[in-house]
Structures are given as C-alpha cells and as structure tokens.
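Re: the 204-residue chain
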Amino acid sequence: MSLPLAGPLAALVGFATACSLTPGPNNLMVLASGLNFGLRRTLPHVLGVTYGFFVLMMAAGAGLGALFAASNVLYVALQVVAVGYLLWLAWKIAHGGALADKRAGRAAPMSSFGAALFQWANPKGWVAAISGMALYVDRGRPLASTLFVAGVFAAVTLPSVLVWAGFGATLSDFLASPARRRAFNWTMALLLAASALPILFERA
C-alpha cells in the first residue's frame, strides 16, 4: 500500500483539510453552537461529527456511495432527506437565540449521536467521502487502505471542526446583545439553508 509514503500521505492530508476546514453545514452548525452554548457544551457535537464522518467514510469505501450514485431512486431519496433536514436545522439555528433566552434551562446543543447521524444527510460529507475513497483507496488492499483513509480524515476533522466551535465561542462576548446574537443566528441559518441549494440542481 503506497499511501503512508510522504507524497501520497501529504496529498491525502491536504485533501482532508480542505474538506474539513472550509465552510460547510457541519462547520456552520458548530460555529453557531459554540456561540450559543460555549465550547465545552459543543464538544459532544464536535465528537459526533468526527466519528459520524468516519463511519460515513467506511460506508463509502464499502460501496454504499456507489450504490446511491448508481440508483436514481435512492439518490433522489437522499436528496429529499438532506434538503429537508438542512432546512429544519436552519430553522432551529435561526430560533436558537430566542429559545436560549426564554427557556435557558431547556435549550441544548446537538447531541453527539445526532451530529453523527447528520453526516448521512450532509451533502458535503458525501462528496468528500466518495471522492476521498475514489482517490486514495488502494484497490489491492481495500480494507486496510479504507481504514487508513477514514482514519486520516477523522484525525483531520476533529481539530478542524474544533476550530470552528472555538471561534463561535470567542464571538460570545461580542454578540452578547440579543439583537446581535439574533442577527448572527439568522445569518448562520440562511447560510446553512443556502448550502442545500446545490442539491436541488443536481440530477434532473
């Protein structure tokens, strides 16, 4: 297996970093969570993203991604679920500030398990998982290389998502006023909803 060599490994780490650190549904959600609930309470969300994406990568390596790509019915079903879930999460984020102000005892960040499940409805995650496996898995050693690629992605995803959560937490003082926090939450919600638009224009 050639992946552990310096060149291919550096390329894999660079690809995983580009996928994990750039803006997307996961990062927008942990950014908003870090602001509204603080870094410590957002950690389960961060961990859920990490192990959830690891499982998704393994599934893509096992051929599930190819199955969705080959079956139009399954692909459209995935699109419908992804768009619906993203819009629901956008609504939750948009109203997060108000809910936190009025019912602070009941407001809570996304759970670790919920964040892990979200990976299956995350279009950016699917693209990264399928592309990563197609580019870097050694077909001569599929199981070992799939584990390796998924492991590298998990190792990169954790600190990348943590950076976004920490950035959200640092904005807490600046956005302490209800008006500013409400504006931030609505901005994050609109960006998250906009991330669903590419799904609507894929496949006629």
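Confidence is low (pLDDT under 50) at residues 97-104.
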